[in-house]
Amino acid sequence: MKQALLIIDMQEIFFDLPENALYQRDQLTEKVNQLIAQARAVNCPVIFIQHTSYTPGEELYVDTPEWEIHHKINRQAEDPIFRKTKWDAFYETDLLAWLQDNQIEQIVFAGAQTEFCIDTSLRAAYSLGYQSNIVIQNGTSTLDSQVLRADQIIAHHENIWNGRFATVQSVKDVLFQPMMSS
């Protein structure tokens, strides 16, 4: 089964600004980099999603320091980046076409924010026919809300996703398949 690793919104805003600091952000960075290394070891594509605003003054305005992919993430120049303007990584982006062109059958999800862009993109992928996806256990993160702590939000979403929209797996249990040329 051809796979792709999808890293969503691992951007400087969640690391540089204290008011936007992701829950366990250092552990998340390590986990994402471990996934990237595992994927690259078998030539599995690593795709980045970058939330982007084109309105000056808004958070994540294109080409601002906070908008950039976090500098500790092991991104390479050849990794595809898709810019999204909504929570859904598929909405008005070329992500679906890229996945189809590359005959990707399974997506492995990690990144931020659990209840927004990860959840929306995961459910969209499922509706678009990607129904055997993997979400990395504690491989997504978010901020505390007024109702729930970040760890509760993550646990709740992993419980909802597992067995419905994806399989939740630990980093050590993810087995990326070697990418074969077609």
From TrEMBL:
Organism domain of life: Bacteria
Molecular function via GO: hydrolase activity
Keyword terms: Hydrolase
Entry's family note: Belongs to the isochorismatase family.
Protein name per the record: Cysteine hydrolase family protein
Pfam families, A to Z: Isochorismatase (PF00857)
All copies of domain Isochorismatase-like, residue ranges: 4-145
PANTHER family according to UniProt: ISOCHORISMATASE, PEROXYUREIDOACRYLATE/UREIDOACRYLATE AMIDOHYDROLASE-RELATED
